[in-house]
Design a protein that fits this description.
five-stranded mixed barrel; 2 domains; 2 helices; binds zinc ion; OB fold (Dihydrolipoamide Acetyltransferase, E2P); mainly beta; three-stranded antiparallel β-sheet
Length: about 150
């Protein structure tokens, strides 16, 4: 078989091969969350941030990454209030869930704590906080008003 003959490729496509050192797994991302750290991925080619971790950059299709710790501060860009919560969270309802645009530009969905029900609004400055229950799998991404 020669290159370009239209046959099946000899190996897995580039996106299916293991990434270089620095590529994160979803498990590693949540381990960081559990320990109170927000570490996402930065594309080594175009510098775009990715969260949750991805194999292929959505901006430039590169597959080379490095870890990118975030400072933990952001701003609410949207939210909703959970009034009927699932399972283990049922007793804690109502509580707000917010889409937060981090200072670095990526957005994360997380739960608001610290009596945030009255304070939550679009534009509210927030700070990432360690999850109330680190044993939860996956841990809940948590934000507090700042
Ligand atoms: Zn890229």
């Amino acid at each position: 078989m020669s290159a370009g003959d239209g046959g099946a490729p000899a190996g897995p496509p580039a996106w299916a091969k293991p990434g270089p050192a620095g590529a994160l797994t979803l498990a590693a991302f949540f381990d960081g969350v559990r320990e109170g750290r927000l570490v996402v991925q930065r594309c080594l080619t175009c510098r775009a941030l990715a969260v949750p971790p991805k194999a292929v950059c959505q901006e430039c299709e590169a597959i080379s990454w490095e870890p990118a710790p975030l400072g933990g501060e952001g701003e609410v860009t949207s939210f909703t209030v959970i009034r009927v919560a699932p399972g283990r969270l049922a007793a804690e309802a109502p509580y707000p869930i917010a889409l937060v645009r981090m200072t670095e530009g990526v957005s994360l969905l997380g739960r608001m704590v610290d009596n945030a029900l009255d304070a939550v609004r679009v534009g509210l400055p927030v700070r990432f906080a360690p999850p109330p229950d680190p044993s939860a799998d996956p841990p809940v991404i948590t934000f507090r008003p700042r």
